[in-house]
Amino acid sequence: MSDAAPALRIRDAAFSWEGGFGIEIDAFEMAPRERVLLLGPSGGGKSTLLNLVAGIARPSRGAVEVMGTDIAALRGGRVDRFRADTLGIVFQMFNLLPWLSALDNVRVPLRFSPARRRRAGDGTAAALRLLAALGIDAALARQSAGTLSVGQQQRVAAARALIGRPGIVLADEPTSALDRANARAFLDLLGAELAAAGAALLMVSHDESLAGAFDRTVRLDAIARVAGRAAA
Amino acid sequence: MSLIRLALLSLWNRRLTAALTVVGIALSVTLFLAVETLRTGARASFASTISGTDLIVGARAGDVQLLLYSVFRIGDATNNITWESYRDIAAREEVAWIVPLSLGDSHRGYRVVGTTTDFFARYRYRRDTGLRFAAGGPFDDLFDTVVGAEVAEALGYALGDRIVVSHGAGRGGLAAHDDRPFRVAGILARTGTPVDRAVHVSLEAIEAIHVDWQGGARVEGLSIPVERVRNLDLTPRTVTAALVGLKSRIATFRFQRFVNGYAEEPLTAILPGAALSRLWSLVGVAERALAAVSLMVVATALLGMVATLLASLEARRREMAILRANGASPRTVMALLTAESGLLALAGAFLGLGLLYGVLFALRPLLDARFGLYVEIGAPGIRDGVILAAVVGAGVLAGLIPAWRAYRRSLADGMSIRS
User: Fold this and answer.
1) Which of A132, A166, B316, B398 could form a disulfide with B309 if both were Cys (CB 3.0 to 4.6 A apart)?
2) Does ipTM come in above 0.95?
3) What CATH number does the domain containing A208 carry?
4) In chain A, how many domains are there?
5) Of B162, B193, B187, B158, which is closest to residue B176 (Cα–Cα)?
């Protein structure tokens, strides 16, 4: 991994799920620290693209370089390690283990990635700082995650994705459960912390109105050809 | 935060479901082991219906038949032994003791057994346990009787009650020896053997109630008053069978050969233990049925356990997806799932074992008193160990299925599950 390498570079990659749904991407690149909004209709292959970047879906051909490493060429166990070290992931909802405190949720990636543990330094302090920056005060951070509001939970999930400074954060419609004002506030806070961590952001959504918070907006159909029935 | 703490917190979060799973497994284990224990208990109780008796002597018959009528009081003897032959055998020097049995009459469906007071001292069951009187004592007077526990309970007899004996075995429509009623002098404690269902009187009493009978019916117009009966010679002419104890067990086979070859009349001597196991092989089909039941119990239990574990693990797909997305390796996820289901099964197995002993200790006196079923309570045996291992093994296997699925797709779950 080198700072000079692009955060993401996909070249001539193809992938198809069982059942025929497939996606082909000729070329797609993200600069380091770049924030990209990937727009596309529901079921249009956005999640498949995220799966390719996360190394869950393996392309049948081509290369998917994340922070300079071609994860398509990595073997199974090393993909997991690479993902733990390099990627922060925010789901659409239900991101947290509800019986853990918000603070413990944020610290979970440190348990699995020595590299992020090293970069984070004092894990508890780093987690509390991130949570505070995202508007979760220390008292709230000690509450169990299940008692937080949806907006608060998404901010805890963002803190977790950012802890230990991963190179790139993947987010799958993280604001879809939030109202417009909250969604905007969430993205602003996320943006500030991404800058502090030096991480790039690839977020997929069908909501064009979010584009203002990003460096660049890309339509899926401009970079990829999708064939067959949509999966999920 | 350690992985173990994470797993324990997760489990604690689902403590009610987890507890129910453990209890469900425990109940299955208890049920299975209890059925098995009862099965072996039933077998042991049967095998120890009579002990301490070296030989049973009767008229020439098959050994199971002789055992059936002399010990179980099922069926009738084809022939009796003459009193002379009985005296002859009793006089042999190998014989330590001999107890005659005279069958043929009944009391409201229960067999009447003519014997001597030695019977109460010599009859042994269940590893040399002797008969015990719950009330009263052996018969003293000619018209005294000692009833078994079941007879006393079913017919509500107490000491001093007067009862009438019928001729022949059956439950009614029988000629009654109603002119010579008996007084209940003793009630035996429950044994779980056919003794519970017998009405015991003296050999002389059997003679006494038959003095004015011929060929199974009362002689018309002839009725000898009780006072005069007492003065008659009541030496029995025949007995049905005899329990024999020898001075030395080494002499058993020799003495058996002597009886079987007895010149004056055709006799048979059997070894009770051998005849009992032969009989068990006939009625053992019930035991095999019970074994089949317990096998089905354990199969059902294992299936239920696997289903419960699968359901609880299915509910954790989201949790696994979160862990995977945050860097947990598939191996870690698999280890978490299989360790949890294995631990639940282990806890269930041991709780079940504990429950079993609790139930056994609590119910043993009841089983013994009400059903005459004596259950041996020992340390868990190899069979119990095999069952417990099977339960834990099935638990781990049950965890492997969702673990495998989690391995394959847990991360994709996080990306695609929207609800």
Assistant:
1) B398
2) no
3) 3.40.50.300
4) 1
5) B162
